[in-house]
Amino acid sequence: MAYTFPIPTTYPLDFPTTIKPSRVGYGQRNEVGVVPSAFSHASQAHDWLGRKWEIGLTFRPPKRDADGSAFEAFFGRMQGRSKTCLWGPDSAFTPKGTAAGTPLVQYRNNLLVHADDIEEAEWTQTGTGSVTSNRSDPAGGTTGQSPDDTDTDAGEANWKQTIAIDADSESYSASLYLLEGDAAAPTLRLALQGGGDQFLATTLTWATETASGAGVLEDVGGGFFRLSISGTNNGGNTSATWQLFPAGITGTEIGNLRLYLPTLVRAANPENGVTSGAVAVAALAPSAGDTVFFSDGWTPGDQVLNKGDFFQLGTESTARLYQITRDITADAFGNARLEFWPGLRDVPADNAAIITSDPRGVFRIMDDPVQFDWLQAQLNGFAVNLGEVF
Question: What is the pTM of this model?
Answer without folding.
Answer: 0.60
